[in-house]
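Ticket #4471: structure export looks truncated?
Reporter: QA, pipeline team
Priority: medium

Steps to reproduce: submit the single chain below to the structure queue and open the exported record.
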Amino acid sequence: MVNVSAHHHQYNQNMIAATDWNVIETEFDPAQLHHKETVFTLSNGYLGTRGTFEEGYPADTPATLIHGVYDDVAITHSELVNCPNWLPLAVIVAGDRFTMDSGEILHYERRLDLRLGILSRDVRWRSPKGHTLDLHFERFASLADQHVLAIRAGYTSLDFQGDITVEIGLDAQVDNQGVKHWRTLNQSGVEEIIWLYNQTRHSEIKLGMAAKIVVAGDDTASVRLEKTDAFPTLKATCNCIPGKTVTVDKIVTVFTSREAEIPIAAALERLAEEPNYPTLLAAHIAAWEKVWQDSDIIIEGDRQAQLSVRYNLFQLLAVTPRHDTHVSIPPKTLSGFAYSGHIFWDTEIFILPFLTLTQPALARNLLTYRHHTLPGARRKAQEAGYQGAMYAWESAKTGDEVTPRWVPDAKKPGELIRIWCGDIEVHITADVAYAVWHYWQHTHDHAWMRDYGAEIILDTAIFWQSRVQWHPQRQCYEILDVIGPDENHDRVDNNAFTNLMVQWHLQSALAVWDWLKQTYPTTAAQLAPKLNLTTENLHLWAEIQERLAVTQDAATGLIEQFDGFFQLEDINFADYEPRHKSLQSLLGIEATSQKQILKQPDVLMLLYLLRQRYDHKTLQSNWDYYNQRTDHTYGSSLGPAIHAILACDLNQPSQAYTHFLRSALVDLEDVRLNAHEGIHAASAGGVWQAVVFGFAGIRITESGPMACPNLPPNWTRLQFRLQWRNQCYEFDLRPATAIARPKITGVIFDLEGVLTDTSELHYLSWQQLADEEGITFDRETHKKIAKLSHRQTLEQILGDRSTTEAQIQEMIERKNCYFLKLTPNITTADLLPGVANFLQELQAAGIKIALGSSSKNAQVVIQRLGISHQLDAVADGHSVPQAEPAPDLFLFAAEQLGLTASECVVLEDAAAGIQAAKSAGMLAVGLGPVEHVGQANLVLPSLEGVCWQELQERIITSRKRESLVGAAL
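Actual output as written to the record:
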């Protein structure tokens, strides 16, 4: 089932290349250091290690986090502890220690192989003394044995002869962003082995770590042990001659007192038993192969989607605990410190559907964690004055609430901000029940449901019984003072998501109780007195679910998000574009709460989770209202994947694909500029749901899963496997026939880089602004940020300088004024080579011509270029609120031409523009380097020498190739 072909293709500006199975970095950029540490994270279900270099790098953030290893900390109560760093490995050549910031890097490639679970790096390095070596590093965290880690370092000299030393160590001097959690009990070594023994300062969890060194390729190599105040090291010295390759393996074992009574003894014993590196690697690869057989997704026709989907699945499969039911998956996996490693609703709602339908045994582990934490949920309910079990918004080891109630205000030093989520974001209790119910329905694991799941669903239903309030005037039950998934609005009454999920929860609890009494009467008899499941209480559940308050328009089906939401101020999102942060960050918490601005739309999330209960009309009505009020780009990362699914349900594939990419690329391309904090685990789970429930249109029926596909236009195949009720279902979805596209009758041009090059004028304008603001700015800096939006460019220029929104808008306007003053310098001579002839040919052929540019100065520029009379339509920065990669600009241009999207071809020089064109359902011709526009249907170096007849023929050839593929399928 697994397609292992690897077609090389570069797809973004951060020098990450994509194959079907590999994420490849071909140029090291220190500015991207922390982002790439996240991207290249390795995990094995027990621990996760960020993608830092073995030899280290200035200001890097090495971290190894182990499931369940928490320690006490101020404010957030507890946090996953940064464990001793097992990576340190240095290569020393004639006294020069190899680092990425010393000597000269002649070649560089870092590769994460998703199929094999291996991170590797190849570097050709010239040392400060002038010696040249090829260095190869690779490492893995064994999926076959969770306590085993391994690094292989190989080097080949090109021109150096003499001794080379490879030094390995275990670094216990680690911290969590300045907070130290470990004290060392013992550290030492003997012969070719070193070890350390640590204990957390408060939770008193012990950790034992041991390592050994193995040299191959040099029989004369010597190994010596050195003990320092920092940590013991092993140094292997080898005789190096040009052309000879030497490899040094570092095998590491790690245990904690969560798995072993004496962890250091267990680590040393396991290290003594471990075979060589190749044998360990083979077992690791075999384990990954087995996992991928059940969980892989094959996408043909879209390599970017293929790579990004596999990347997201890899990170989830890698981090899911396999041998521990007392832990779960944090929202940043084990790849970063954000959220302290606590457990949220992310796991149940976004990640568990993927695992339930492809790796049900792993899903069961995560749900069993929720049963182990029921005592904590009961304590929370009791402390809040309620009955039953009330799950913590943030949970750790015990299930007690660990959400901080107050956090420091980053903008106002010395002041605190009240965090209400732990007190009133109660929907998580229904979310856990939802995951339990669907696991049971999809697996028919009746034994687990009897022993664990039923108690969860029933005791949490008792909580809702005590949480609702009767409103005598409205004659309904209410749930007051809550926070829904849309955290832009807190302390609201009758949140629709919460109330309707509670309604579902109580209905499901009654069904579970009936099943339990009939199927397992002994268990039911035991639970009844334990949970106070009296006939009176069960009747009350039925009454509550029938009479819960929900405001819904009977005619349209429109649901009000919460009481009074429709009375909040409505805003025009376009007034705040372009921007580079969330609207809440721009406007402030209080101001945002008074407006109809959604971090994520509660009602649409509800309609997805309970999609079988609502008709198309209700979905369309609520989509039309809430979609336009959602901060899609910088609100919650949890929303876009769900929007992709609903857009598929509404037969809007272009919108669906745009939302899908926002989720799929959130870490690989750092689309939210926060990937340095760690993997977006919920978004990763959402990606799988978008593909399976959205594009594949999977519906779970009583006879099994069925597909109603709505594939993106460029996908020629979608293949995956589901497990449902102990049976395997294979889906291999392809277009039924190749769809003949209409004749091309319209051409849409981008402006910058396609028709002309005004980068010099933009530089001079920014230079004048920077000079006035007293900021250093030069051509080299501008070259690096030339492709950014105006707002992004300004934020790069300003750096850390504190500015208000009004100041930002003023400076953007000022810069535009300077640019407009320079536009008289633009003449017809500034048309790029080939453009004038090409425009004349299009006019002669009767082809409609449009400009599609996000620039708000486009009209002025085309007038100066002398081509405005040749354009039938202009779509610019004033035309639509959303710029590329959204398809809106090009769709607007087609509409102005009176053409359908399929009748248009777009000429673009940027990846975002190519993505926007294809999302709009248009053919895309890329102008420029393949690494920038390789996703286009056709790539040309420029328009120089290109005639319309020739371009038509090449487009027809490209179409025929696509059609032949479709027909063969």
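Status: closed, not a bug. The export was complete when the record was re-opened. Leaving a note from the reviewer for reference: Residues 496-519 form the longest helix (24 residues).
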